[in-house]
Amino acid sequence: GSMTGYTLDQSIATDFSNLIDWINNAVSNEEHYLRQRSHSPMTIEAAVRRLRNTISGNRVLERNASSGNPPQFAHQRNFGPIVIDIDGLPSQAQRFVVASIIEYLKADRRKNAGRRQAYILMLDELNQYAGRGNRDEVARLFEHVAAQLRSQGIILFGAQQKASDVNESVFENSATKILGNTGSGEIGQSIWTRELSTDVRSRALQLRKEEKLVLQDGFRYPMALKFPANPWATRERDALVVSNESIFLHEEIEL
């Protein structure tokens, strides 16, 4: 497919079920490809267990399907915001979906570098994907996004309750940081003591709910903003219904 990473020989396995059988065969077969590369039977058994557990607890992966059907939104010329609901998925499945989308967009930008196109990804709970001290494949992918992909048109807006929980490389490569009311424990972390003066940190402790500080590389001092109240209800029970007609224009997009 268009995803980066390793590609499995289709003559060996066409789906996850075949793949598990192929790997498991290496436990007793000393001539197996994996055994020839010095992988011990215990290591192979552990890999099989982990793969089985991942697939059985992951509704995103289809055990007996030879290919997936990801949304082809990069092929659309014009489209509005696309919301991908991952809330009901286990944590590992959420990470898989998000990483797959980023890899998909990376491949699109490589193939269509001459086309002016920007993708904006908005993601909550950033530490789940690029947590402090995390060095796995997904975390390294987010480091790559923060360090290099912004110039290629892939822009990440990430939110996290505590910035100190986020991968330091991702935090430091952020072009813009927005800080709301912050507790003394968080504002005393090294990432903020290096970034902000004592006076600014004191102000962060006193910010109201609607107030924010914006940190930008070109700013000598943080810019203070005050956000107005939302013009719409964010909870159904707070809504005042004056019409049942949708205010949005519906466009049919083939995904």
Strand content: 5-15%
Structural class: alpha+beta
Q: Biggest sheet: strands, sense, closure? A: 3 strands, antiparallel
Number of domains: 3
Order of helices and strands: HHHEHEHEHHHEE
Strand order of the largest sheet: 3-4-5
Question: Helix count, per DSSP?
Answer: 8
Distance N terminus to C terminus?
17 Å
Return Rg in Å: 23 Å
What percentage of residues falls in helices of 4 or more residues? 25-40%
Q: Which residues form runs of ≥5 with pLDDT under 50?
A: 1-5
Number of strands: 5
On the 0 to 100 scale, the average pLDDT is 85
Shape label: globular
What features would you highlight for this structure?
255 residues; alpha+beta; 3 domains; three-stranded antiparallel sheet; two-stranded parallel ribbon; 32% helix; 9% strand; globular; disordered N terminus
Summed up, what is this model?
The chain is of the alpha+beta class. Helix content is 32%, strand content 9%.
Report on the structure:
The protein has 255 residues and is of the alpha+beta class. The protein folds into three domains: 7-69, no CATH class; 74-169, no CATH class; 175-229, no CATH class. Helices cover 32% and strands 9% of the residues. It is built from eight helices and five strands; from the N terminus they run αααβαβαβαααββ. It has helices spanning 16-25, 41-56, 91-111, 137-147, 168-172, 184-187, 190-195, 198-205, and strands spanning 119-123, 154-158, 176-179, 211-216, 223-226. The strands form two sheets. Strands 3-4-5 form a three-stranded antiparallel beta sheet, with no helix packed on it. A hairpin with a 6-residue loop joins strand 4 and strand 5 (223-226). The longest helix has 21 residues, at 91-111. The chain is globular and about 65 Å long.
